[in-house]
């Protein structure tokens, strides 16, 4: 692993080396990932962008251990996740990763507090009370912790989901279109929390999005097309990202 | 619309599987029961015509419980040859047939007896009245000639021309088989085989040489009524003349009534199984509606009216109902054939020949199955009709967590009032209504039970970790669905418990009462022969036998009622058997004195029905005079000096005379009955030796003293087991319901399960969660069924005690009930097998993907 040619210069929270994912065979084969080598640096907010079908979600899912690569390898820290079995993958996700989805995916029978603590309850570990309070305060859910998801608005549910991802202090948080189901004002709030988590607590976040405005909250934006990384942008702004995206359509 | 229905059924075949299985099982069971009972009824009724087809007048005992084959009943009166001759001489009578039967057996060359269950029958010369036909060879005409039935000949390898040794009541007799007989379509008239004997031999071999008959049948020309009226003048006391038609009707009724009762009882259970099936169907369709919410909403959005949606669901129900019911009828037929085959392999067989597919059974099965299916679909169909187009856009299924307050109040009222009414009511109807109200309350209130039960079990399950906690939460997310699922189990378990507890209580009570009445350990009866001193000394030679008390006994009528009169060593009788005076003293017996059974004692509510030998409701008391008439018609008057306390033993004795008086009436006949007393606890050791002695004498029949108690115990046990077995069927059907609900639950929570797996719940724990929920539902259903069964059974026992002044102690078979509870949990685990596997089969990504 140390001899990997594409080893990145800075410490990376997760990376993929010559990652390929193919659906179907022969003539009908579709290459969702056609040899991607990428590194997600620690304590940074990385956004992955690209048109529909570019493979951006597949890349995230394979790195997050939700899906398996056809060839190549994916690492969380120094762990080669392609070597792990199903249960080991589950435990890795539980102990080291956090997830935020477009659909909030809360457990309806658990209160907001219980939902936030769910990964730690499953691991049987005790939450750090101060840290829990900090996160809850950050996402602004302090007074609604006893409510069930059905008693919360969409934005509030997504805040609970963000808190759930952050409270166990995962090595890396994967977010798949976290603002896709929210109005723009609530979306901005959620993105601000994520930004603050990176700036103030050193959290690593990888986010898949098609929204240039969301991408502007990231440190780096990676652009994917036809299963390959075609470009990247440091310190993005919404306008620059939008311009870059227009080139795909043109 | 209809083509949509059909294509829906086709495309969702898998979903309908559970429904189909439920319908097929229920209908199959129902029709199989119908086929089998019809066959039994038909064969029993058919026999009546074959046996008595040409009878115009039947002279039968007044108490016609059994007309023939009652030879073992020592109290039976006989028709003498003199009376028979008078009957034959009546104008218009063209022929007559006297029936005389007795048990016989064959003695093989090896000294062992075979065909020990065979019945010897006087061969009836009148061809029209003889139920038997000569199949090959010829009819027995000369002394020592016999005919055996076709089946017996085949089974025991006998053929025409064989010389055999027959064991009869009179001892060993040599005989030659001259013919084989048949009875209509079947071989034998009697269960263990029929041996036909000439008239002269029959009197000697079967009836101690007396020219007597059990019953007498006449045929004649002219009006049956006139013949009956003429015969009535000749008929002796204890007998009646009946017209052939009435007689056949009665016989048919008696013969068929067993089958009819059997059919009704079994069909009740079958309908029960179908009703439980109804719950499963209701459940399945609820599941289907929930699964297809989006599809239904789309239909609603594009313009399907609520009525059309409702109708489409009902049509699906109808289609499934008809298909399932038709398959069920086929399954029922196959089941019948299988049962027949299994019985035949094990050496038994169903009576009658061939199973006919009765139209009534087929139509009944299809109709019942279809109607129950359609009814079960009504509520889900209404729900489908309420689908709003907007639900096509909604993300998750809406949960109906609400339970109305009115429902709660009504349920509580029903339970309390129902139980209260049962506990204080004095009328059977009120008690029945009370219990019904209680059960309806429990049933409709099941969602509360589900909620409450889940809340109570939460602390326990929470200890098992997050999966335990979530399992509890999931079960109350839709308490109505949980309740419907659990209810299917509740009914089954409720009935199993009710039968077990109430049945066992009754059994213990009945057996206890009987044992109280009995004290002799064995009753030895000779039919046709005697209990001679040699046999008595052989009996006394058996180790552990303390005393043998033989006594003489003759059938008589006392004041017109058929009974027996006995005489023997009074000291021995009172010592060995439970024969004692309830008024007066047995020591006062002497010339023209008699002791009779006390009818007043019987009226005091003894649990045992003492059907014979009591002087009927006239005020017989010490000092009254009774008239005793023997077989020959001799009448004598006696003064009652003692009343005998009724017991199983004293019923065998009947009335008591002192030996001299008995001699003067019947001559110096030998004892025919004996009570045997053995060391207590030695019953099972002595049984074989005593039976071995009796086997050498075909006339002698041994009954274990507590046999009646044991017999009743066995009958109760058998009934309880049979009924429980049938009820367990409904429990199995309930299992399908749990599988269904769990499968739906998993489908609905697809994304939730996916998320749990993504954020770190291992597949093992996810599967455990599903299993725990299933076990919880099963446990709740089983427990509430068990408790309500227990409550109802105890209430019933208390009511019976209150109404009848009996004191039945409730006996609760704890071990069996615990077994039922364990079974419930096991069912829960079994039901979860498939759904649990399915819960983690989907890749996590697919599970959380938006639809």
Brief description of this entry?
The complex is a heterodimer of chains A (250) and B (851). Chain A has 250 residues and is α/β, with parallel strands linked by helices.
Account of the protein in words:
The complex is a heterodimer of chains A (250) and B (851). Chain A has 250 residues and is α/β, with parallel strands linked by helices. Chain A has one domain: Rossmann fold. Chain A contains 8 helices and 10 strands. Chain A has a 6-stranded mixed sheet, sandwiched between helices. Chain A has a 4-stranded antiparallel sheet with strand order 2-1-4-5, covered by helices on one side. In chain A, helix 5 (154-166) packs parallel to helix 6. The longest helix of chain A has 18 residues, at 184-201. Chain A is globular and about 55 Å long. Residues 1-8 of chain A have low confidence and may be disordered. Chain B has 5 domains: 1-54 and 244-398, no CATH class; 55-243, no CATH class; 411-444, no CATH class; 446-518 and 706-851, no CATH class; 520-705, no CATH class. The model of chain B is unreliable at 65-75 and 601-617 (pLDDT under 50). Chain B has 851 residues and is an alpha+beta fold. In chain B, strands 16, 17, 18, 19, 20, 21, 22, 23, 24 and 25 form a 10-stranded mixed sheet that branches. In chain B, strands 4, 5, 6, 7, 8, 9, 10, 11 and 12 form a 9-stranded mixed sheet that branches. In chain B, helix 2 (13-52) runs antiparallel to helix 7 and helix 11 packs parallel to helix 24 (763-804). Chain B has 26 helices and 25 strands. Chain B is elongated and about 100 Å long. Helix content of chain B is 57%, strand content 16%. Chains A and B meet through helix 2 and helix 3 of A and helix 14, helix 23, helix 24 and helix 26 of B.
């Amino acid at each position: 692993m140390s001899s990997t040619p594409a080893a990145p210069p800075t410490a990376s929270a997760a990376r993929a080396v010559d990652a390929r994912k193919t659906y179907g065979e022969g003539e009908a084969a579709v290459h969702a990932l056609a040899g991607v080598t990428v590194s997600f640096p620690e304590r940074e907010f990385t956004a992955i962008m690209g048109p529909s079908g570019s493979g951006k979600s597949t890349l995230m899912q394979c790195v997050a251990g939700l899906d398996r690569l056809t060839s190549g390898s994916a690492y969380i820290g120094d762990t080669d996740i392609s070597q792990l079995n199903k249960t080991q993958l589950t435990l890795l996700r539980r102990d080291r990763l956090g997830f935020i989805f477009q659909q909030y995916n809360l457990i309806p029978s658990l209160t907001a507090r219980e939902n936030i603590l769910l990964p730690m309850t499953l691991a049987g570990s005790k939450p750090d009370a101060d840290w829990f309070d900090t996160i809850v305060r950050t996402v602004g859910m302090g007074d609604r912790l006893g409510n069930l998801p059905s008693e919360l608005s969409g934005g509030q549910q997504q805040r609970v989901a963000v808190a759930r991802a952050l409270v166990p202090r995962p090595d890396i948080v994967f977010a798949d279109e976290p603002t896709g189901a929210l109005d723009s004002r609530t979306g901005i709030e959620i993105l601000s929390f994520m930004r603050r988590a990176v700036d103030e607590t050193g959290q690593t976040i990888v986010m898949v999005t098609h929204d240039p405005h969301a991408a502007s909250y990231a440190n780096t934006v990676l652009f994917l097309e036809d299963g390959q990384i075609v470009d990247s942008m440091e310190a993005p702004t919404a306008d620059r990202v939008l311009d870059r995206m227009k080139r795909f359509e043109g | 619309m209809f083509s949509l229905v059909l294509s829906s059924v086709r495309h969702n075949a898998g979903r309908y599987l559970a429904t189909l299985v439920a319908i097929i099982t229920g209908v199959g069971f129902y029709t199989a029961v119908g086929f089998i009972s019809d066959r039994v009824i038909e064969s029993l009724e058919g026999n009546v015509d074959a046996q008595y087809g040409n009878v115009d007048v039947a002279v039968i005992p007044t108490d016609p419980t059994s007309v023939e084959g009652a030879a073992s009943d020592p109290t039976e009166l006989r028709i003498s040859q003199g009376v028979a001759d008078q009957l034959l001489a009546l104008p218009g009578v063209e022929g007559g047939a006297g029936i005389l039967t007795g048990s016989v057996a064959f003695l093989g060359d090896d000294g062992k007896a075979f065909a020990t269950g065979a019945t010897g029958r006087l061969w009836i010369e009148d061809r029209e009245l003889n139920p038997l036909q000569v199949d090959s060879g010829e009819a027995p005409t000369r002394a020592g000639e016999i005919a055996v039935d076709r089946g017996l000949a085949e089974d025991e390898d006998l053929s025409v021309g064989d010389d055999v040794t027959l064991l009869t009541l009179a001892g060993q007799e040599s005989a030659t088989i001259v013919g084989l007989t048949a009875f209509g379509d079947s071989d034998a008239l009697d269960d263990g085989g029929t041996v036909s004997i000439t008239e002269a031999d029959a009197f000697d071999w079967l009836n101690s040489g007396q020219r007597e008959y059990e019953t007498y049948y006449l045929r004649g020309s002219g009006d049956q009524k006139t013949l009956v009226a003429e015969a009535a003048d000749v008929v002796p006391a204890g007998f009646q003349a009946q017209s052939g038609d009435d007689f056949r009707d009665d016989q048919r009724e008696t013969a068929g009534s067993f089958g009819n009762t059997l059919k009704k009882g079994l069909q009740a259970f079958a309908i029960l199984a179908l009703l439980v099936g109804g719950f499963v169907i209701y459940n399945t369709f609820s599941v289907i509606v929930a699964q297809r919410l989006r599809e239904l909403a789309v239909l609603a959005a594009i313009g399907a009216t609520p009525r059309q949606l409702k109708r489409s669901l009902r049509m699906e129900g109808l289609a499934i109902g008809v298909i399932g019911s038709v398959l069920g009828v086929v399954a029922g037929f196959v089941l019948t054939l299988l049962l027949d085959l299994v019985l035949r392999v094990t050496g038994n067989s169903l009576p009658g020949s061939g199973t006919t597919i009765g139209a009534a059974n087929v139509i009944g099965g299809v109709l019942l199955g279809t109607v129950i299916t359609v009814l079960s679909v009504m509520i889900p169909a209404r729900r489908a009709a309420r689908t709003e187009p907007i639900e096509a856009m909604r993300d998750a299924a809406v949960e109906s967590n609400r339970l109305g307050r009115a429902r709660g109040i009504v349920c509580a009222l029903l339970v309390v009032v129902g139980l209260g009414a049962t506990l204080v009511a004095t009328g059977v109807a009120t008690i029945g209504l009370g219990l019904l109200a209680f059960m309806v309350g429990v049933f409709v209130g099941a969602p509360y039970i589900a909620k409450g039960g889940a809340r109570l079990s939460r602390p326990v399950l929470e200890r098992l970790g997050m999966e335990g906690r979530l399992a509890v939460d999931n079960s109350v997310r839709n308490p109505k669905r949980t309740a419907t699922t659990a209810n299917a189990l509740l009914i089954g378990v409720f009935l199993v418990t009710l039968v077990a507890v109430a049945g066992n209580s009754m059994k213990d009570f009945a057996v206890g009462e009987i044992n109280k009445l009995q004290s002799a350990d064995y009753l030895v009866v000779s039919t046709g022969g005697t209990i001679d001193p040699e046999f008595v000394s052989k009996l006394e030679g058996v180790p552990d036998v303390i005393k043998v008390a033989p006594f003489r006994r003759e059938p008589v009528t006392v004041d017109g009622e058929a009974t027996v009169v006995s005489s023997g060593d009074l000291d021995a009788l009172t010592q060995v058997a439970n024969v004692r005076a309830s008024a007066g003293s047995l020591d006062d017996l002497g010339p023209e004195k008699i002791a009779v059974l006390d009818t007043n004692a019987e009226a005091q509510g003894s649990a045992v029905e003492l059907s014979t030998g009591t002087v009927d409701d006239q005020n017989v008391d010490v000092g009254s005079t009774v008239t005793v008439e023997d077989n020959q018609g001799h009448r004598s008057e006696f003064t009652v000096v003692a009343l005998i306390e009724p017991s199983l033993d004293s019923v065998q004795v009947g009335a008591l005379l002192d030996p001299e008086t008995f001699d003067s009436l019947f001559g110096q006949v030998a004892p025919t009955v004996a009570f045997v007393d053995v060391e207590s606890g030695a019953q099972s050791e002595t049984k074989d030796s005593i039976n071995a002695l009796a086997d050498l004498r075909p006339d002698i029949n041994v009954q274990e003293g507590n046999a009646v108690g044991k017999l009743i115990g066995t009958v109760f046990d058998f009934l309880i087991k049979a009924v429980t077995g049938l009820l367990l069927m409904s429990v199995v059907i309930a299992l399908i319901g749990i599988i269904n609900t769990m499968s739906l639950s998993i489908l609905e929570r697809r994304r939730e399960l996916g998320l749990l797996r993504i954020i770190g719940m291992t597949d093992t724990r996810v599967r455990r969660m599903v299993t725990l929920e299933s076990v919880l539902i099963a446990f709740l259903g089983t427990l509430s069924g068990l408790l309500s069964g227990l409550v109802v059974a105890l209430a019933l026992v208390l009511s019976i005690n209150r109404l009848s002044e009996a004191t039945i102690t409730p006996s609760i078979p704890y071990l069996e009930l615990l077994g039922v509870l364990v079974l419930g949990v096991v069912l829960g685990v079994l039901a979860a097998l498939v759904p649990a596997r399915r819960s983690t089969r989907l890749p996590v990504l697919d599970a959380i993907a938006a639809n």
